[in-house]
Amino acid sequence: MPTLLLTGANRGIGLELMKQFTPLGWTIHATCRDPSTATELRQIADRAGGRVTIHRLEATDHGQIETLGKTLSGVPIDILFNNAGVMEAKQRPYADMAGSQTLDTLDWDDWMAVMRINVMAPARMSEVFADHVAKSDRKVIAFVSSIMGSITSTTGTWIHYRSSKTAVNMLMRSMAADLRDRGITTVTIHPGWVRTSMGGPTAAVAPEDSAAGICKVITAVTPAQNGHFLTFDGKELPW
């Protein structure tokens, strides 16, 4: 069976992706900061008959990423899904964040932290696990992006978050060119505005619907879509 490596698997869209992939019979390596507190994720793993392994990973710790790469040495990874991300490093409730990250409210330390989590961490994951992906059958690296990272579609505010997702899109486009000759297909996915702790309770898309769409899209990705910016329902987004 194919193998998925998923970051940020203990909450939000990541947890819903676990619920989508586990019934498909995939082997899953799921990462989170603290497995001891990831109760629902551990329950999913317990029911999976040994097909789910949970790994402790602080995504901004490049040493931990390297260690995980060595732990999974020789393991082909069909899909590396860089899902972990934040709107702000403090991770306040969505209502408390509303209207923040404007030119008048920039928090330089938070902005740098958001860039480390949303851009540098998936870049390092991709660097470490590119060989694992190249050895697999499907050969896919996917990133969670956002329509908020589309320069064409931007409406202002959320400067920390928007700039990080624009950077993720450029990272993906560069990787798509760099890794094409190794047979790797690289894409970014907009999950929709999802009702999670990050998206808030009034968001338009249920987590299970977003995850179901993402699962369908990334398991059907073809080399012809290399370098594409896709929505959770398979549409193309402008840059």
Question: Tags for this entry?
Answer:
239 residues, alpha/beta, Rossmann fold
**Spatial gap, N to C terminus:** 35 Å
Gross geometry: globular
Helix vs. strand class: alpha/beta
What's the number of helices?
7
CATH superfamily: NAD(P)-binding Rossmann-like Domain
Identify the CATH architecture: 3-Layer(aba) Sandwich
Taking strands numbered 1, 2, ... along the chain, how are they ordered across the largest sheet? 3-2-1-4-5-6-7
Per CATH, what is the topology? Answer: Rossmann fold
Mean pLDDT: 92
Low-confidence stretches: none
| Number of domain modules | 1
Brief overview:
The protein has helices at 12-21, 39-47, 62-71, 94-97, 108-134, 159-179, 207-219; strands at 3-6, 27-32, 52-56, 79-82, 140-144, 185-190, 229-231. It has 239 residues and is α/β, with parallel strands linked by helices.
Structural notes for this entry:
The protein is an alpha/beta fold. It has one domain (3-231): 3-Layer(aba) Sandwich (Rossmann fold), CATH 3.40.50.720. Helix content is 39%, strand content 14%. The protein has helices spanning 12-21, 39-47, 62-71, 94-97, 108-134, 159-179, 207-219; strands spanning 3-6, 27-32, 52-56, 79-82, 140-144, 185-190, 229-231. Strand 6 (185-190), helix 7 (207-219) and strand 7 (229-231) form a beta-alpha-beta unit. Helix 3 runs parallel beside helix 5 (108-134). The relative contact order is 0.15.
